[in-house]
Amino acid sequence: MAVTRHHAYLAAEPAVATAADSAVLSNAWLLIALPLAGAAILLLGGRRTNGWGPLLATALPVGSFVWAVLALFELLGRDAAERSVSVPVYEWFAAGDFSARINLLVDPLSISFVLLITFVGSLIHVYSLGYMAEDPGRRRFFAYLNLFVAAMLVLVLADNFVLLFLGWEGVGLASYLLIGFWQYKPAAATAAKKAFLINRVGDIGLLVAIMIMFTVLGAVSFSDVFAAVPGAGDGVLLAIGLLLLLGACGKSAQLPLQAWLLDAMEGPTPVSALIHAATMVTAGVYLIVRAGPIFEGAPVAQTAVMTVGAATMLAGGIIASAKDDIKKSLAGSTMSQIGMMVLAAGLGPVGYVAAIAHLVTHGFFKAGLFLGAGSVMHGMNDGVDMRGYGGLASKMPITFATFGLGYLAIIGVPFLSGWWTKESIISATFGIGGTAGMVFGTAVILGAALTAFYMSRMVFMTFLGRKRWDEGVHPHESPVSMTAPMVVISIGSVFLGAFLVLGDRFAGFLAPAVGAEPHHFTVGHALTAPYGLAALAVLVLGVALAWFAYLRKPVARTAPDGNLVTDTARNELYGNEINEGLFMRPGQVLTKALVVIEDKVVDGAVNGIGAGVRDSSTGLGRTQTGFARTYALTMLLGAVIVAATLVVRF
Amino acid sequence: MIPLNLADGAPPALHGVTEAPPALDWWLLAPFLVLFGAGVLAVLFEAFWPKDSRRTVQIALAALALLVTFVLLILQVEAVGDGTTVANGVLAVDRTVLFFQGTVTVLALVSLMLIAERRDGRDAFSAQAATVPGSEEERTHILAGSQHTEVYPLVLFAVLGMLMFPASNDFLVMFIALEVMSLPLYLLCGLARRRRLFSQEAAVKYFLLGAFSSAFFLFGIAMVYGYAGSVNFGVIRLAVESGGAEIFADGNGEPLLLMGVGLVAVGLLFKVGAVPFHNWKPDVYQGAPTPITALMASCTLVAAFGALLRVFFVPFGTSAQIWEPMLWTVAVLTMVVAALVAVTQRDIKRLLAYSSVVHAGFILTAVVAGSVDGLAGAMFYLAAYGFTTLGAFAVVTLVRTRDGGQELGDIDRWAGLGRRSPALALALSLFLLAFAGIPLTSGFIGKFAVFEAAVAAGAAPLVVVGVLSSAVTAFFYVRIIVVMFFRDSEGEGPTVARAGLLTGGVITVGVAATLALGIFPGPVLDNLLPSSEPGQEPAAVMVDQVTAVPGEE
């Protein structure tokens, strides 16, 4: 909810949608309301919705998706300059020149996210129908999924930072509920708590950033804040930028707030797919791109963004290369890929389109990979250790095919989705020139090499090579409700990148919203430029290394002793230990100290005030004697007071 | 009406001595006439209608009269335009007045539902109030099934007074309205079926103190008349601007004005129950039959504040610098003292009485603001509070002791109510949160509106006191919620009477209004309340027909 002064709201107002303009846009609130209604119905309806609840919960995000497609066509029907549509939803009240209301912003950036969230989200709902078919808590599960989607839609459709924060917190809540969905498992409960706590750290960053905006810039809506940026001091912009980055780090699992993401794998696999592909981790990238004008005004913050992105990209790749747990390896991969997007977003306008394009294609192939991993686990009695897999290709042909296409896309095989968008990021990174361009560009190439290695490792260990199944495990293909979404998504993994990048379709669509020059992408250049060739070379190198290590040599059933490097990587680069040493222990000491202060000082004051109020209450209560004569006397006293204050005016 | 020849000058044109009968606009007077006619008719019914069906007919007549009145008021909204005065300028009809009257009528209609509710074939009123409590005669009447259907004509007359009170444009008419409103209420307070001595005591106290305050009010009118040479609001306003009637040409009239303002203020502040004129409220609210308490807490407060706003903004509107410090003091006293005393109250009705006093203090901050925004804020606050408080008292009528089934006022014995009757406890919690001013309830919007107006008018210290007082009040509201939901009942808890259609309806209306005005206040704020143009005085939206409207000169 934005609390703004009217007069501050006049600058740079986007076109206001009117009912006459189109019913689709002026009712954009339906996008959010549908899944939210689903969550409400399933949670409040209780057991009687057990039967049809999950189906309803699946249908509602589909409805949102359809509405989003209609909205997309509405936007495409407008001039490029008029595609930012502010949709007033609800004005709570206006008193004087004060106004509290909810507005949505439908523009190319937000609608891209809405389409991704609702499309991939819907498929994950369908998939969950099969995956969670036997779970006793499936109604609750679908309610939380709907809540997750609704919160994420609030986040991306908000036209101001406060409403964005509401969605941001909603996402945090929904992820907590879903990661800890099997809360009877201590690991799941701990993971949920961990995700929640680490996200709080990031949330504080976002919250303080909003407070600074409100007090210093006097506004919280995007348009007002960005209009105020040119007049703001460098220090203010830097502070806001770094705090926003902190917020983004929490949600997007970037260093140093990455530790929750791997543990979050304790949730049901569709949740992992949802968190990693369509919602949650993409929020940080969205925030940085949306707040672009702020970062452009604070170059140091931009450099910080790039550094964090690059570091996370490499760290994630290293972790993914060492993990034997298929979901944790994929989680490391997500860290890495999101890091790449954050890096691109830190480049400024030239990188925004590349970052978002990669985010969209990544949403597809990462969802496909997670759903594939879930399908594998489904067939392997929920085993997650890849050392216990091997040779599954023949048993699970559809899973293998869809997973394989996702794999080829993510490592950047030319002309598949991932190649187009990764090439865009590489070229944009080198494009900034200078030392920074070289350093970060090289980092991206290195990240691509790591991707090729760990993804090949995963595919080789899972689907190819020798069977290393435990006794009693009988792999089988998953039901059609699970494979169908995987097939649909794999089609996106293959073609979406080309569709978006060829002819600069996506760039041209997105550019006005993010204030970027449309970046021109040529296929020939991408294939022949030095960095393009380098990317292809490391791709081959990574696959080859994995082939040597995991396909030519037999894979041991138990992990061999590692050296220092592999141990470090297996322990997630000691992220948890660092967190414990740097934050947890000092935090515990601080808490103990605060408890003492609380008991002695705060409680003392509170109790003192309470006692004071009670005593004065009793004292004053004595004037209420019950005698009419006393009351009359009090009134007379009142008349004297009135007379006195009339004569002696202060 | 009033011979005006204190000085030699010609009397103001609109207010001359009339030889010819005054021209009366029957159409604009119709709401009063309908209520008056219905009241008279009800008295006749009381005398001549067969006993068996009398109660039904009385209720139907009262409800019909209130409905017709409301419809007439709605129809007048468009018709009056910028407003006018009727009956020789003694009554004003403008949108502000109509808002107060409409609110009073609706609240009275809802209260009537509570008044008409019967449990085990009996309503909340004594079989025969004239009998000595506990006497043989009383028992005879109870056994014979006697009942006081006089309640309904009394309510109609009281509501008639409440409609006239905020519409008065003349101090004498205002005084008559005050008495028309108060006298039936004094009687109604003493009619409780249970704890009759308690009820009678409340009635006598209310009557004595009310008479006392009326004396102040009347004496104040005399002083003002002496100062201005008229009791007409418009004329007084002009006189205050020019330093008094013509005999005070050398400017020595101020003491009369000060006395007049002060004494009139005492009378009005008594009616709204501001500290230190509030002592009657807890005793009377507790002793009176709860449906009557609900009527007083909602309708009387709205009417009294309507009159108070009118008096301070129209006749005394140009002397704000005189009375502002006085109202500051009273507002601070009200907000602080009532909030503090309420903390240790144990009886729900007394607590709601103190709560009503604190709310009066909050609304006084809007009066101090002296702006159109303040007026609008107070109007919204009163309407919102009226519905919420009706709902709260409706809940009170349902919670009863196990033995004897009388209302159980002791909050500590409400423990466990949340588990036994969750819907009822939730409804009461909503009302309490609205009293506390929690967002998304009407109470928040109301508080925000009056405090915003007060800050804009430079009364920030007053708002600080108000917010602190709110914090204290939140404590005892939330305490009730805690008792209901989080404490196990010790021994036998209360029983909850089944909410009949009528009481259930009142609670539903209360919940709906509290939520609607809290979540979608826009339509009311934008359409029904006066909106300010910069620098406009509240008198601009309160017609008096003598002075030119500021801003249109």
UniProtKB/TrEMBL annotation, chain A:
<dbReference type="InterPro" id="IPR001750">
    <property type="entry name" value="ND/Mrp_TM"/>
</dbReference>
<keyword id="KW-0472">Membrane</keyword>
<feature type="transmembrane region" description="Helical">
    <location>
        <begin position="204"/>
        <end position="222"/>
    </location>
</feature>
<feature type="transmembrane region" description="Helical">
    <location>
        <begin position="480"/>
        <end position="502"/>
    </location>
</feature>
<dbReference type="Pfam" id="PF00662">
    <property type="entry name" value="Proton_antipo_N"/>
</dbReference>
<dbReference type="InterPro" id="IPR003945">
    <property type="entry name" value="NU5C-like"/>
</dbReference>
<feature type="transmembrane region" description="Helical">
    <location>
        <begin position="271"/>
        <end position="289"/>
    </location>
</feature>
<dbReference type="Pfam" id="PF00361">
    <property type="entry name" value="Proton_antipo_M"/>
</dbReference>
<dbReference type="InterPro" id="IPR001516">
    <property type="entry name" value="Proton_antipo_N"/>
</dbReference>
<feature type="transmembrane region" description="Helical">
    <location>
        <begin position="141"/>
        <end position="158"/>
    </location>
</feature>
<feature type="transmembrane region" description="Helical">
    <location>
        <begin position="164"/>
        <end position="184"/>
    </location>
</feature>
<feature type="transmembrane region" description="Helical">
    <location>
        <begin position="630"/>
        <end position="648"/>
    </location>
</feature>
<keyword id="KW-1133">Transmembrane helix</keyword>
<feature type="transmembrane region" description="Helical">
    <location>
        <begin position="109"/>
        <end position="129"/>
    </location>
</feature>
<keyword id="KW-0812">Transmembrane</keyword>
<protein>
    <submittedName>
        <fullName>NADH-quinone oxidoreductase subunit L</fullName>
    </submittedName>
</protein>
<feature type="domain" description="NADH-Ubiquinone oxidoreductase (complex I) chain 5 N-terminal">
    <location>
        <begin position="92"/>
        <end position="142"/>
    </location>
</feature>
<feature type="transmembrane region" description="Helical">
    <location>
        <begin position="301"/>
        <end position="320"/>
    </location>
</feature>
<feature type="transmembrane region" description="Helical">
    <location>
        <begin position="531"/>
        <end position="551"/>
    </location>
</feature>
<feature type="transmembrane region" description="Helical">
    <location>
        <begin position="228"/>
        <end position="250"/>
    </location>
</feature>
<feature type="domain" description="NADH:quinone oxidoreductase/Mrp antiporter transmembrane">
    <location>
        <begin position="158"/>
        <end position="443"/>
    </location>
</feature>
<feature type="transmembrane region" description="Helical">
    <location>
        <begin position="52"/>
        <end position="73"/>
    </location>
</feature>
From TrEMBL, chain B:
<feature type="transmembrane region" description="Helical">
    <location>
        <begin position="26"/>
        <end position="45"/>
    </location>
</feature>
<dbReference type="Pfam" id="PF00361">
    <property type="entry name" value="Proton_antipo_M"/>
</dbReference>
<keyword id="KW-0520">NAD</keyword>
<feature type="transmembrane region" description="Helical">
    <location>
        <begin position="149"/>
        <end position="165"/>
    </location>
</feature>
<keyword id="KW-1003">Cell membrane</keyword>
<feature type="transmembrane region" description="Helical">
    <location>
        <begin position="453"/>
        <end position="478"/>
    </location>
</feature>
<feature type="transmembrane region" description="Helical">
    <location>
        <begin position="325"/>
        <end position="344"/>
    </location>
</feature>
<keyword id="KW-0472">Membrane</keyword>
<feature type="transmembrane region" description="Helical">
    <location>
        <begin position="292"/>
        <end position="313"/>
    </location>
</feature>
<feature type="transmembrane region" description="Helical">
    <location>
        <begin position="351"/>
        <end position="372"/>
    </location>
</feature>
<keyword id="KW-0812">Transmembrane</keyword>
<dbReference type="InterPro" id="IPR010096">
    <property type="entry name" value="NADH-Q_OxRdtase_suN/2"/>
</dbReference>
<feature type="transmembrane region" description="Helical">
    <location>
        <begin position="378"/>
        <end position="399"/>
    </location>
</feature>
<feature type="transmembrane region" description="Helical">
    <location>
        <begin position="423"/>
        <end position="441"/>
    </location>
</feature>
<comment type="function">
    <text>NDH-1 shuttles electrons from NADH, via FMN and iron-sulfur (Fe-S) centers, to quinones in the respiratory chain. The immediate electron acceptor for the enzyme in this species is believed to be a menaquinone. Couples the redox reaction to proton translocation (for every two electrons transferred, four hydrogen ions are translocated across the cytoplasmic membrane), and thus conserves the redox energy in a proton gradient.</text>
</comment>
<keyword id="KW-1133">Transmembrane helix</keyword>
<comment type="subunit">
    <text>NDH-1 is composed of 14 different subunits. Subunits NuoA, H, J, K, L, M, N constitute the membrane sector of the complex.</text>
</comment>
<dbReference type="InterPro" id="IPR001750">
    <property type="entry name" value="ND/Mrp_TM"/>
</dbReference>
<keyword id="KW-1278">Translocase</keyword>
<feature type="transmembrane region" description="Helical">
    <location>
        <begin position="499"/>
        <end position="520"/>
    </location>
</feature>
<feature type="transmembrane region" description="Helical">
    <location>
        <begin position="256"/>
        <end position="280"/>
    </location>
</feature>
<feature type="transmembrane region" description="Helical">
    <location>
        <begin position="171"/>
        <end position="192"/>
    </location>
</feature>
